[in-house]
Every structure is written in structure tokens, then in C-alpha cells.
Amino acid sequence: MNDAILTAVFEAPELSWKRVTLPLMVPIRTSAATYEAREVLALRLRATVGGEQVEGYGECSPLPGWSTETISEVELALRGLANSPALKESLTLAPEHLDAALGNLASIPTLRFGVELAMLDALARQQRVPLANLFAGDNPVDLTFGVRLQTTHALDPPAITAGRVRVSVGVSNRAAKLKVGLDPLETDVERIRLVREQCPNAAIRLDANRAFSLEQALAFAEAVAPYNIDFLEEPVACETIEEFLELSQKSAVPIAADESCSPPDFALKLIEARAVNALVLKPMSLGGLLPTLQLIERAEEAGLRVVISNLIESAIGRRAAAHLVAGNARFNALDGSHGLITGNWLKEDIAPERDKNLGGTLRLDDAPGLGFVPTPFAPGREAT
């Protein structure tokens, strides 16, 4: 990343936002909650950068059952922030400066993510480059082939899940993520067996959302190990690094941290101890793209794998996460499929066009910034 990004000055910043409900195609059931729609807060930042008036867009979308904050709490915090003295002067993306400006609100990860993203998007538009270019430094960025996507499947009957994975993955080596932990062990194993039978080359990832005890997780891992599992995400609600180390050392399949990667300090400890095999990083829950990038860099040094994912966000947050991947293709840690296909889950979105999910990849536009103006802020529409 170019350090000049952190020193760019955003003068007289102004924030506005729009709360939008995005219905899902079908309800999604996990061990954490069942979702029928996503409520999101789309942000717009107006500021002067380098003598030029620019706009950038961000998103604050806490996920019920996952995030500690609610969308109403975030919106209330935004109202206070919009009228605070910090936003009457100037901002920079340097973490210490941005956190000082946000004050206590810097501890709300979805709010921090939204403000940071709006600033990054505005800066990329001011520089006339795609958002991905801000992360690449002097390294080339090629958006031609897009970001590889994993498919994600909820807790459907085994035969239905296997059929859907066969259609989406087939004989490729793309990743298929299966939710586990709510059905009986025999049902989960049958689902996995059928997927492996019909998709012999797929990278099968399992996500238990902390549904198991340690003993249950180890028994589950033993039962599914014959099916060549890529990794098992967060099977147990481990509270310490030592618990993660014990789980990883005893498990018959590789272990990934997901929920436990927030806050970033704990994710850093997981990396330093090499307590897991992989990390699933959600920039929305980590407080921004730049904190996520720091974890990617550390994981790269430690030889760990990283999957970038999202909280069923709108096109703003989802494509921003894809730009983060595209701008860091030099890292082996990011070599694989990422959890950014969720735009297909939404009946409606706030981008002018649906995601370009072609050939198992998310294609990004090479237009400046995120590549689009969110529909709530399109000409002729007022944001509240």
C-alpha cells in the first residue's frame, strides 16, 4: 500500500446516509439466526481532497446474531458524529488520526468500516483509479479475471445441497462452504458425502458457527475427515489462544477462525501463535479495509491462509472487500476462493447493476473508486 494514502487530507468532511432494507431471495438459516432481509446503512462522504470536491461511499451493516451493535445504535452514533467538531475540520486515514476523530465510536466496527471506506472511495475517485489500486502500491492490478468466489450453502436437505453444489462448482476446484451443526451428525455427514461424491475436486469448507462443544467438534472432525475437508470454521466458542491450539492440534481436519477474528487484536494473537490453519476475515466486523490488510500481511508472513468474506452486505461493502483482494493478489495467503457471492442472495441491491459473477469470479469495473454510485445517492434521489 502507498503510505501517501494515510496522509491525504479530507477537508470539511460531511456525512449523510440512507437506511435501506434489502429482501433476500429465500430465508437463510444458520446456527446464529435466520435471515429474511438485510438492513443496511449506505453512507456518503463529501470532502475536499487536494483542492477538489469529491464524494465517496461506504456502508455500515451490523448483522443480527453476529455483530454486537444494532443498526439503530449505529444510526444514532452517525447522527452524533455528523454534528461533531471532528467532522467540521479535517480527517486523514492514518489510524491514530481517524480513531481520534471518531473517539469512542471507533470501537463500533461497522461504523468505522463505513467511514473509512467512504474516505478510501473518495480518495480513489479523486485519483481516478479503481479502489483496488490504492492497496497495490507499485504492484500491477489486473481486474480482468475478477476475484474467485466460494459458493455458500445453507442447511438444506443433503440431496438438495449436493445438487446445488454440483451446479455451481461441478468438477472445478472452487470452494463450497456448507453450514453444519444444527442437524444431527448423520445428516451433516450425508450432506458432505453427497457433495464430495458429485464434486470430487471441490474445496469443501464447513462452518459450524460455534455450534459444538470441544468433544463434539473433535468427533465431527473425525467423522468428516475422509471427505478431504478444506477446513472447519469456528466449530467451538474458544475464548483463549490455548483453546484454539488444543482444538487445532487434536482435530482431524484443518481449523479456521471466523467469529474470533474480531476484534483484530485477537486475530493477530491467533496468527502469532499459528493457532489455526486459516482465517476468515470480514472487513465490516474488523473496522475497515486497512485493519484487514494489516492482518493479511501478518498472515502472509506466518504462512496462514486468508479468506475474505462479508456480513451479507450490499454491493458497497461486498465489492469493497473484492477490491481489497484484487489489490493484493501478490499475497499467497489470498490465493483461493472468497466469500463474496452473497449478492446473489439479495432480491434487490443498491448498485445500478447486479454483481458480475461470471465463471465463478466476481468481476470488478475499472472505473474510479468502487466503480458505481449507490442508487440511494443517484441524481434525483435525496439521502436522509
Topology:
Layout: H1 4-7, E1 10-29, E2 34-49, E3 52-60, H2 71-82, E4 90-91, H3 95-102, H4 109-126, H5 131-136, E5 147-148, E6 151-153, H6 158-168, E7 175-179, H7 185-198, E8 203-207, H8 214-224, E9 229-233, H9 241-250, E10 255-257, H10 264-273, E11 278-281, H11 283-286, H12 289-302, E12 305-308, H13 315-326, E13 356-358, E14 361-363
Helix pairs in contact: 6-7, 10-12
InterPro entries: Enolase-like_C_sf, Enolase-like_N, Enolase_C, Enolase_C-like, Mandel_Rmase/mucon_lact_enz_CS, Mandelate_racemase_C, Mandelate_racemase_N_dom, OSB_synthase_MenC1
Function: Converts 2-succinyl-6-hydroxy-2,4-cyclohexadiene-1-carboxylate (SHCHC) to 2-succinylbenzoate (OSB).
Catalytic activity: (1R,6R)-6-hydroxy-2-succinyl-cyclohexa-2,4-diene-1-carboxylate = 2-succinylbenzoate + H2O
The secondary structure category is: alpha/beta
Strand content: 15-25%
Number of strands: 14
Listing every helix as H and every strand as E from the N terminus to the C terminus, the arrangement reads HEEEHEHHHEEHEHEHEHEHEHHEHEE
